[in-house]
Design goal:
This protein is mainly α and about 290 residues long. Strands 1-2 form a two-stranded antiparallel ribbon. It is found in: Mitochondrion outer membrane.
């Protein structure tokens, strides 16, 4: 029996470096998993390097055998009280940092929204009047109401009312002859054979295909109060109230911009309706 054990030991082979007992008789061997045969034994030093590669600096990561998937039993020397406290503090800080970073990010966005809301109030109502309104208001109302101003502007910007106007225009344009006089070729979009002949009805683009970028929506929404103030001063300078002048300027800007956008999309629609595919040019035979 001793002879068999000796033969078994002599034929140990490391599955990492493929060395045997004869190559290094002082090396420490370990049997870390359920494997049998040639993958049963491995050098302690070789396995340590292999575990380091798998953990990639994270000493708490679990490592398993690549053959039998048995998890390696890795133990560490006991830590002293000071080192234990430092290690515990390091782990707690590592786990708390993502939540702290998220909180800082949310807080920064919130206070930025509050600041933007306060600036918008002073811009729309007037600097002195806006300060008086915010000083008399309840602080809790300001903390809730001011950050909702940019949120409501962004949500309002996402409402594509021009598309609904465009659908109504295409549906009832044959009944309004004045539109055909103002915009020639309008009858080409009439569906179901009513009015002028239709060369082609273009395929309706899906809402996702004609989306506006997030940055465009954000910039357009946040700059809208400034544009409304400027348009109000230019077009309604006779109005004394800053708030009324800004509201009228905003309505005028939205209406004018929407009219141009509807007209632009309609012309693109008509251009698609007149699209034509040409014959392939014939090549002269040599």
């Amino acid at each position: 029996m001793c002879f068999c054990l000796c033969v078994c030991v002599c034929f140990r082979s490391c599955w990492v470096c493929f060395a045997t007992d004869e190559d290094d008789r002082t090396a420490e061997w370990v049997r870390p998993c359920r494997c049998r045969g040639s993958t049963k034994w491995v050098h302690q030093s070789c396995l340590q390097r292999w575990v380091d590669e798998k953990q990639r600096g994270n000493s708490t990561a679990r490592v398993a055998c690549p053959q039998c998937n048995a998890e390696y039993l890795i133990v560490f020397p006991k830590l002293g009280p000071v080192v234990y406290v430092l290690d515990l503090a390091d782990r707690l800080i590592s786990k708390a940092c993502p939540f702290a970073a998220a909180g800082i990010m949310v807080g920064s966005i919130y206070w930025t929204a509050v600041t933007y809301g306060a600036v918008t109030v002073m811009q729309v109502v007037g600097h002195k009047e806006g300060l008086d309104v915010m000083e008399r208001a309840d602080p809790l109302f300001l903390l809730i109401g001011l950050p909702t101003i940019p949120v409501m502007l962004i949500l309002g910007k996402m409402i594509r009312w021009e598309d609904y106007v465009l659908r109504l225009w295409r549906k009832y344009s044959n009944k309004l002859q004045i539109l055909n006089c103002i915009f020639p070729g309008q009858c080409l979009i009439v569906v179901q054979g009513i009015g002028c002949p239709v060369p082609r009805i273009p395929a309706e683009a899906s809402p996702l295909a004609d989306h506006m970028s997030a940055t465009r929506i954000l910039c357009g929404a946040l700059v809208f109060p400034t544009i409304a103030t400027i348009v109000g001063k230019l077009m309604f300078s006779s109005v004394n109230s800053n708030l009324q002048r800004t509201i009228l300027g905003g309505i005028a800007f939205v209406a004018i911009k929407g009219a141009f956008k509807v007209y632009f999309k309609q012309q693109q629609y008509l251009r698609q309706a007149h699209r034509k595919i040409l014959n392939f040019p014939e090549m002269d035979e040599a």
